[in-house]
What we know:
Layout: H1 2-19, H2 39-46, H3 51-69, H4 74-77, H5 79-89, H6 93-103, H7 110-129, H8 150-180, H9 185-205, E1 210-221, H10 231-244, E2 257-260, H11 273-286, E3 290-297, E4 304-312, E5 315-322, H12 336-339, E6 362-363, E7 371-376, H13 383-391, E8 396-401, H14 411-426, E9 430-434, E10 440-442, E11 459-469, H15 473-477, H16 480-502
Parallel strand pairs: 1-2, 2-3, 7-8, 8-9
Antiparallel strand pairs: 1-11, 3-4, 4-5, 6-7, 9-10
Helix pairs in contact: 1-2, 1-3, 2-3, 2-8, 3-5, 3-6, 6-7, 7-8, 7-16, 8-9, 8-14
Amino acid sequence: xxxxxxxxxxxxxxxxxxxxxxxxxxxxALWWFAYVALVPWMLLLRSAPTGRRAALEGWLGGTxxxxxxxxxxxxxxxxxxxxxxxxxxxxxxxxxxxVRELIGGVPAGGRAAAALVLxxxxxxxxxxxxxxxxxxxxxGLLGASQWQVPPALMLASVGGVWLxxxxxxxxxxxLTMVVAAPGARAxxxxxxxGCALLTGAVWLWVPRPEVSGGLRVAVVQPGPxxxxxxxxxxxxxxxxxxxxxLAGAPPGRxxxxxxxxxxxxxxxLAARPDLARRLAALSAxxxxxxxxxxxxxxxxxxxxxxxxxxxGPDGPxxxxxxxxxxxxxxxxxxxxxxxxxxxxxxxxAGEDRMRGDAPAVMExxxxxxxxxxxxxxxxxxxxxxxxxxxxxxxALLVTQSATSSFQDGWAPAQHASLAALRAAEDGRPVxxxxxxxxxxxxxxxxxxxxxxxxxxxxTAAVYEVPLARGTTPYVRFGDWPVGAALAALAxxxxxxxxxxxxxxxxxxxxxxxxTVHG
Length: 518
């Protein structure tokens, strides 16, 4: 009976310990907590009596982590969120087994040093797998909790969010050994020192983006609009009214670009030339092009698309980007024939949106040589997409977003924080424009430019956005920390396999003696 109670206690503790890192993310944003948040979970795993028990507690902790970071999806996904968390929680089983193997018992010397490399690498595996768009994308990567920490943003410019995740897990691993493994404290202190030296070296010697000119960018945030049959038109009218307030500025103070949020236009502009004329008149009145976002059934091809469309005084310029990576269940239902019933229990997509074919870089009218790279909502979570746009020549990255379905939860703050990471990784400013907040602008080092627009705001704000030239190491070399982590894990697996092959086979047992009775 006592053993059963102990098992239940450990199971509950594993799920709770796995959920703790969520406090490091917005909205709580206790960034410093990320460096100790894994310690309780790792202490539990290292004391698991068997590998099977460690695997169970790794799965439960991973489930708790995924659920806690994404809990704001519960009103939309309902039971699917529990299923998704349980499915993705499986990804942490190999990491849990590594924790028990490398820092369980009395780790010392080589095993402790190996833990400082292999446990961060092992943590990167579930982050990498769940970054696939079909599994929800790279939302809640541990390194993303450090979006407001300048040294961490410098690390991101070198190795992306992946390098920040590796360092955070390495610190947690070292602290776990300091607490629970006296024989490994020398290696743990050496590991902490190495993390500090790496961060210091990057801070001192990696060059910052070289600022070269700037743009005045206006963000138009209409604020919440009550649902109803005319809500699309009322949202458009609110954006129109706020944009008109930008007119009349003297020539030196006019915006160079006006950005509206995701789904700010609810009709295809080719099918509604009256809306295109209204937008063109706005552009002429303000003296700047408008980047709007059309969420509508297209008139020139089948299906509904979400598209960034650039509007000038003469109407659409011809520059258009169709969203490529869609939100599972929110914008399409995977295997709809099997899971289509999700529309009856949550806010799942009634009809699948269509995917775009390729990224787009748009020339900014009136600013020769300045190009902008649009992303739509969920896509700002993917480091590779903004890196691709930067390599294609984008001087400004623009994310058009809408999180109004989760207005009172953690989602708006979590989403806005990603702009800082993408800016730091690519050395390019990022404008994160939303319908209902939080809208933010970040400079090319990830620093915030001007005040954020909260979820309570209905306004248009103009930001002085610095442009930068040059290339960050991350843009140049890409996801090299991922390759290094996979190589370290492959070398460990190969060493383990070679060790098992060298181990002598057990001697065959002698047959039982037979007794003959006369």
